[in-house]
UniProtKB/TrEMBL annotation:
GO BP, sorted A to Z: tetrahydrofolate interconversion
SUPFAM superfamilies for this protein: P-loop containing nucleoside triphosphate hydrolases
Keyword RNA-binding: no
Highest taxon of source: Bacteria
Protein name as catalogued: Formate--tetrahydrofolate ligase
Associated pathway: One-carbon metabolism; tetrahydrofolate interconversion
Binding locations of ATP: 74-81
Keyword vocabulary terms for this entry: ATP-binding, Ligase, Nucleotide-binding, One-carbon metabolism
Catalytic activity as recorded in UniProt: (6S)-5,6,7,8-tetrahydrofolate + formate + ATP = (6R)-10-formyltetrahydrofolate + ADP + phosphate
Lineage, uppermost ranks: Bacteria, Pseudomonadati, Planctomycetota, Candidatus Brocadiia, Candidatus Brocadiales
Pfam family, one: FTHFS
Family: Belongs to the formate--tetrahydrofolate ligase family.
Enzyme Commission code: 6.3.4.3
Amino acid sequence: MVLDPTKHADWEIAEDAENRMKTVYQLADELGLEKEELLPHGHYVAKVDFDKVLKRVGNKPDGKFIDVTAITPTPLGEGKSTTTMGLVQGLGKRNKRVIGAIRQPSGGPTMNIKGSAAGGGLSQCIPLTPFSLGLTGDINAIINAHNLAMVAITSRIQHEFNYDDERLAKSNLRRLDIDPDRVELKWIIDFCAQTLRKIIIGIGSRMDGFMMESGFAIAVSSELMAILSVAKDLKDMRERIGRMVVAYDKKGKPITTTDLEVAGAMTAWMVSTINPNLMQTIEGQPVFVHAGPFANIAIGQSSVIADRIGLKLGDYHVTESGFGADIGFEKFWNLKCRYSGQRPNAAVVVTTIRALKCHGGAPIPVPGRPLDPAYKEENVAWVEKGTENLVHHIETVRKAGINPVVCINHFHTDTDEEIKVVRKIADAAGSRVAVSQHWLKGGEGALELADAVIDACNHPTNFKFLYDLSAPLKTRIELIAKEVYGADGVDFTPDALTKIKALDNDPDISKMGTCMVKTHLSVTDNPQLKGAPKGWRLRIRDILTFKGAGFVVPMAGDIKLMPGTSSDPAFRRVDVDVDSGKVKGLF
């Protein structure tokens, strides 16, 4: 007997379900993994040696490939991870050999307002505590590898400042002539720590380092996380890490991790991260957890490697992209699919009546405060107006040549009339539509969604990228702004234009995708603008370069690479039962 999600918290449901979990050995046997391909971390979590798996089954045909995305969410989120788990469970109920792939949560949102992204209700990834609190150490390894690069650059600046050329030579160092004002990286930490966005380091004597401005970003925004997302194998990862640009010299030449002779040591920290983590849904279907979140400031995709083995081992493979289709799906479409060569059969666009009301004129929800009572009352007009945002995202999926399926993630306050208007408008926009009650009923509640996805996967697609890599960077940014965001055009700051001009003369630009940084709370660069606004222009204030990952990163609006912690963070409700040692309060 499973617990009732209307009466029990997510962590209580997860804890109860964990009493009936399959061991990783059972999961591996059901997946067809061989003994040496499983790398257990206890009885219920394991890494999978992807290289051995692909050498054995790499010539098998791929299964059906489904991406899960969403409309523009409210600050509360619309249950995309929950829907991913629910769809996997629903397909399992239809006796399909199905595998899921989701991203490992960051400690920042887990201990802040968003939660751990394990799903919710009766559609979760378990065991919840290891999933939420570090798992097998991938993010910790990224932190160490990234901060080692920061140690390398800051110590080198100190030594070059203090030593003459003869003393440098005695230390087997050559002068790189690093510009302290052009160190591109920041330190990273996996919490939302707004007070660390800008800091001064090196305060003290010459022995305490070179005094300069620095700062912190959240761990999952690191280029190393992007590299983990797109790397094909360890060799590819090592080469990408070696291309990472850490700083520039005083003539504007890039200084890479290879120049700093730190790329090998960084890769040593990263070796174990390349193998996906194996977990399960509450109903026992396998789930790969690999790479990280934050599609607004990073690529925000489960890894190419997890998808590769999922497609070989399953008949259906369901992967997840961060936030709305303007951000996560666009990066899945134009970055991840480009690097992997994989082509999806369908994309699920998750929506809720709550979010549609928000886009249609209801008061914007504030995390930590009670939801406005208007959200619990029928308002078909708000819902109908809000579907402008839904249709916008359906059109984005269709521009990629992929079959869309709208999932109405059902809440008990939704009315038949509100659902009816969503069905009508989504159908007219060219999408299949399904109401899903996976949060309340698990896989049984997701059968309509599973059937719609199966049907979509049985129809042909006409996949095509939005832009060609031969297009100038400015043209690519304008295409994304106009075709995906609905902007009239793009305005660039002088600094951004200077960097674009330099990049257009860089021969590597034709190998690099465009990874936009933009708010997830609006299709525009203004988080307060809801729906599908017209008559606006995107503002690009800066351009970052991730040469290792193979991305140019345009920065839109005022979004930060280090989020802030709210006044009512989740960590206030997390504790440990000292008798059993079990963690409670996670969500």
